[in-house]
Amino acid sequence: MDQLVTALISGGVALVVAGLGMVAALAQVRRERRRLLIDPAFTVSMELIRARIAAYPEAMAALLPLSEASSEPPTAEVAWHVAERLNTWLYSAGGLCASATARDALLGLRQGCRRWAADGRRPDDLYDWRNLAVATLRFDLGLRDLEDHDLSREPDPLGRVREELRLLRGRAAR
Fold this sequence. Notes:
By secondary structure, the chain is an all-alpha fold. It is built from seven helices and no strands. The protein has helices at residues 2-38, 40-63, 76-90, 93-97, 100-119, 126-140, 157-173. Helix 2 packs antiparallel against helix 3 (76-90).
């Protein structure tokens, strides 16, 4: 009989604890839902990030022909095509959702490509504009680690990557 009473009391306590846990979880869900519905700035911010995630790959693809690692070095004709693609992108959803800094970087790059196409001389600052454009697009998406990844300038690129991996493992262990 004592075992039956103990089992009933234990079961009752377990039901009460589970019920309280469920009530707390439901209250948290309601608070989050209310916050999402009430806080339009959060909702707009999330939609802006979604729009950028959808549009920015096209801008990055437009920059690909200017890559120093391309199979063929860029020419004035390639620069003209890049300028046209950037112009189209700037007047599409991408240009609408880009930050002012990203738009300015892409506009500067477009202007440099147009100058190159017009006079046949590659502007000295063309790659500075391209690098700035890439960095600002990444920054708009919240992607950090914006430093230059020119491996030829790194004394030991593999060592740097190993060190970053070691730091990440240290963070994960905490």
